[in-house]
């Protein structure tokens, strides 16, 4: 295999597979070291990798297995594929919403010209589902297939590109890298190649950062890349499992105020006294310093119990995070491992505390704490937490970050009150951060996977035209810089020259999703395993026989005498060879043929019932039996993740619909369409019961007595675009109890300011849910 297909560094390679048995023909692979202890050669450690490889290469010849395990594995594969696809859709929508958030804010403040409004409108009009398509000719398909196979299988090119692009370019590149080139988040080859790219990026980051204290902290394309990686399916699943219950439990206590900043506590005291008494006493002056506030006896008295409650809550969060160590995604743990390894190499005298600080800088600063501070953005809660819980979550995140950083001083003096939490848990946090790094490497399995990729006929990429053209454009723009930083780009250059200049981005409405077949320009499919790998033909026969009999035993009816224990492998083969099913007949004949070949080679013996092979078949069946329960458990967890990701997608789509509605209203007014014309297009009234709105979450709090709610209903009318009238009625009364005029821009402004509650005296509405309801019922056809 060409060196270019291997991982960039093999210095720390360790096999992730092992075998408890070595066939007689392979006894020469056991050697003795100077102490007389036996060691296994690399060849022997490849057995299970070779087995997986053989099965992958002969997949189209396999019988269709339909036992319980196969069925749940298919469900799991489909679910993982859906999560990967939905994650990409959400990433694209989040980009749109981020862009429009800033633009709509200008509209709200009346600071955007008509031309800019039209530009935003075109962005919205284009934000539609991308249709299927294809390149106009086969030559371009083949050339881009070569290019993207090279980019995928040699991650160093993308790693270098990530370091060269600007902040304005990084999101488009990350979309293509994280969700397309390595978009199958649960496929080991793509995940491992992505991680080797991270290793290259991190290594360069360490080499080019003079001060370790600034490593991984600045907002750079590299840090954005690391954050984006944590937002993929496995990271989201972990956050949901570990943090969701804790955060939801905390935000229920809306009135619990745990502010410990003395100045804010003092200001709150002043406000309360003014509300209660009307004027301030002489000993409560305004405008005092933070030091004076901290010295105030009443402030101290208020803060003391809050500090203890905060430490208890933070302790609970820490305990949950530590207890879920084993559920931390492998990729995130592997990145932590690389940070530790690179730190030791770059700073050989660095103390363990310094190393743990850098690991914590990634795990907490980039992964866990953002989810604690903004749980809604991470799909952990349904709505934005109210002010008090939001501040508590911020303080908890600061405490965890301080614990991971272990500073000798507090940046904010009032945080020094929480030092007992840091002192108590220092050693515990150190141990946890080191334990995060204790995962095996994957280089050997990646080498096997790359062999499989060369041999597959169906390796392909689902990618959009604009992703192809944008990546082509970035490579073209930065190719000279790639050479300057020491990259060997000879193959990359050759492909770029054949492709010619990068085409411009097409309008979003003309963008198309392509299925791009991937194959290497320089590597050929492997036909002879024994020549390609350090194994013998006997190894291949042994592994194929094991695979054949496992498949047969999983496919034969449970009541068949052939599946009774102890196993009789020849009887299994004979039974299959007598079946009418052609695939089973062929497998049965092949099984018998392999038994004879292995017997003639002296690998197995007929006299002991092929004991060596039989034992390994039994072990594999036992492993697969245990695997079913694990697969079912994983399906349960991922179904919850998929539901969360879909709910978030609905929320993002709702946001875009809201912006469309608002923009339509603003542009109508700006273009001089009078109110008279708009009033002719009255929509509604639409009637909603109290029970209906409560069930949909629009009513988040009600002061209406339970026994009267069945008689309450609401009428909502839109007399003109962007304006709504909500009236509350009681059955049997001709006039409404109250009426409220609402403007869409007022609701948007409330949402931008995180004001989730709209008070209608008798009920409190949830602002995002109201917006979603209005969009659903009052979307005007002209947009």
TrEMBL record:
<dbReference type="GO" id="GO:0046580">
    <property type="term" value="P:negative regulation of Ras protein signal transduction"/>
</dbReference>
<dbReference type="InterPro" id="IPR008936">
    <property type="entry name" value="Rho_GTPase_activation_prot"/>
</dbReference>
<dbReference type="Pfam" id="PF03836">
    <property type="entry name" value="RasGAP_C"/>
</dbReference>
<feature type="compositionally biased region" description="Polar residues">
    <location>
        <begin position="21"/>
        <end position="38"/>
    </location>
</feature>
<dbReference type="Pfam" id="PF00616">
    <property type="entry name" value="RasGAP"/>
</dbReference>
<feature type="domain" description="Ras-GAP">
    <location>
        <begin position="189"/>
        <end position="405"/>
    </location>
</feature>
<dbReference type="GO" id="GO:0005938">
    <property type="term" value="C:cell cortex"/>
</dbReference>
<dbReference type="InterPro" id="IPR023152">
    <property type="entry name" value="RasGAP_CS"/>
</dbReference>
<dbReference type="GO" id="GO:0005096">
    <property type="term" value="F:GTPase activator activity"/>
</dbReference>
<dbReference type="InterPro" id="IPR001936">
    <property type="entry name" value="RasGAP_dom"/>
</dbReference>
<dbReference type="InterPro" id="IPR000593">
    <property type="entry name" value="RasGAP_C"/>
</dbReference>
<protein>
    <submittedName>
        <fullName>Rho GTPase activation protein</fullName>
    </submittedName>
</protein>
<feature type="region of interest" description="Disordered">
    <location>
        <begin position="1"/>
        <end position="38"/>
    </location>
</feature>
<dbReference type="GO" id="GO:0007165">
    <property type="term" value="P:signal transduction"/>
</dbReference>
């Amino acid at each position: 295999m060409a060196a270019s297909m291997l991982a960039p560094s093999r210095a720390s390679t360790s096999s992730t597979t092992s075998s408890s048995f070595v066939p007689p023909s392979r006894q020469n692979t056991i050697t003795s070291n100077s102490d007389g202890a036996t060691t296994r050669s690399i060849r022997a450690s490849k057995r299970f990798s070779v087995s997986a490889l053989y099965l992958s290469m002969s997949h189209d010849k396999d019988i269709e297995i339909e036992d319980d395990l196969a069925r749940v594995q298919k469900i799991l594969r489909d679910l993982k594929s859906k999560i990967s696809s939905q994650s990409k859709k959400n990433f694209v929508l989040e980009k749109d919403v981020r862009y429009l958030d800033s633009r709509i804010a200008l509209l709200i403040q009346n600071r955007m010209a008509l031309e800019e409004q039209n530009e935003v409108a075109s962005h919205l009009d284009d934000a539609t589902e991308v249709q299927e398509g294809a390149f106009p000719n086969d030559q371009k398909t083949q050339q881009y297939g070569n290019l993207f196979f090279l980019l995928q299988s040699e991650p160093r090119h993308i790693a270098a590109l990530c370091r060269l692009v600007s902040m304005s370019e990084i999101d488009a590149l990350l979309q293509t890298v994280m969700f397309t080139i390595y978009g199958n988040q649960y496929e080991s080859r793509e995940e491992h190649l992505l991680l080797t790219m991270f290793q290259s990026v991190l290594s360069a980051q360490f080499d080019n950062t003079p001060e370790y204290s600034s490593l991984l902290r600045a907002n750079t394309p590299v840090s954005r890349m690391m954050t984006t990686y944590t937002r993929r399916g496995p990271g989201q699943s972990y956050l949901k499992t570990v943090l969701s219950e804790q955060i939801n439990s905390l935000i229920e206590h809306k009135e619990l105020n745990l502010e410990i900043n003395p100045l804010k506590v003092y200001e709150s005291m002043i406000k309360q006294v003014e509300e209660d008494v009307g004027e301030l006493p002489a000993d409560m002056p305004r405008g005092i310093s933070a030091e004076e506030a901290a010295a105030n006896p009443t402030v101290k008295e208020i803060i003391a119990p809050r500090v203890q409650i905060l430490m208890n809550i933070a302790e609970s969060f820490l305990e949950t995070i530590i207890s879920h160590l084993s559920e931390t995604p492998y990729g995130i743990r592997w990145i932590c491992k690389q940070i530790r390894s690179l730190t030791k190499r770059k700073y050989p005298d660095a103390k363990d505390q310094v190393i743990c600080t850098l690991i914590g800088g990634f795990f907490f600063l980039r992964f866990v704490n953002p989810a604690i501070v903004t749980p809604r953005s991470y799909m952990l809660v349904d709505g934005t937490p109210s002010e008090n819980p939001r501040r508590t979550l911020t303080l908890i995140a600061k405490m965890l970050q301080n614990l991971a950083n272990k500073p000798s001083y507090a940046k904010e003096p009032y945080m020094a009150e929480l030092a007992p939490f840091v002192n108590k848990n220092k050693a515990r946090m150190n141990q946890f951060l080191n334990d995060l790094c204790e995962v095996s490497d994957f280089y050997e399995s990646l080498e096997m996977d790359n062999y499989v990729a060369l041999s597959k006929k169906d390796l392909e990429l689902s990618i959009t035209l604009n992703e192809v053209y944008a990546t082509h454009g970035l490579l073209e723009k930065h190719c000279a810089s790639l050479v300057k930083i020491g990259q060997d780009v000879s193959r990359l250059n050759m492909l770029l020259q054949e492709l010619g200049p990068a085409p411009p981005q097409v309008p979003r409405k003309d963008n198309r999703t392509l299925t791009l077949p991937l194959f290497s320009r320089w590597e050929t499919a492997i036909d002879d395993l024994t020549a390609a790998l350090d194994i013998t033909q006997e190894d291949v026969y042994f592994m194929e026989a094991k695979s054949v009999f496992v498949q047969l035993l999983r496919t034969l009816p449970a009541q068949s005498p052939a599946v009774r224990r102890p196993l009789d492998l020849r009887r299994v083969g004979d039974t299959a060879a007598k079946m009418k099913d052609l695939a089973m007949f062929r497998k049965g004949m092949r099984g018998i043929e392999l038994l004879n070949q292995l017997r003639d080679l002296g690998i197995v013996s007929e006299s002991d019932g092929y004991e060596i092979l039989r034992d390994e078949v039994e072990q594999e069946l036992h492993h697969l039996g245990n695997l079913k329960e694990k697969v079912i458990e994983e399906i349960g967890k991922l179904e919850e993740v998929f539901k969360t990701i879909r709910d978030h997608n609905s929320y993002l789509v709702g946001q875009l619909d809201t912006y469309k509605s608002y923009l339509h209203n603003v542009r109508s007014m700006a273009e001089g369409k009078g109110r008279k014309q708009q009033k002719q297009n009255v929509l509604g009234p639409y009637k909603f019961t109290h029970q209906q709105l409560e069930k949909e979450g629009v009513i988040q709090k009600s002061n209406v007595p339970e026994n009267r709610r069945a008689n309450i209903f609401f009428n909502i009318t839109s007399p003109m675009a962007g304006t709504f009238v909500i009236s509350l009625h009681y059955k049997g009364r001709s006039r409404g109890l109250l009426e409220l005029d609402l403007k869409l821009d007022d609701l948007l402004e409330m949402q931008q300011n995180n004001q989730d509650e709209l008070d209608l005296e008798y009920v409190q509405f949830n602002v995002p849910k109201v917006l979603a309801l209005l969009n659903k019922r009052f979307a005007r056809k002209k947009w």
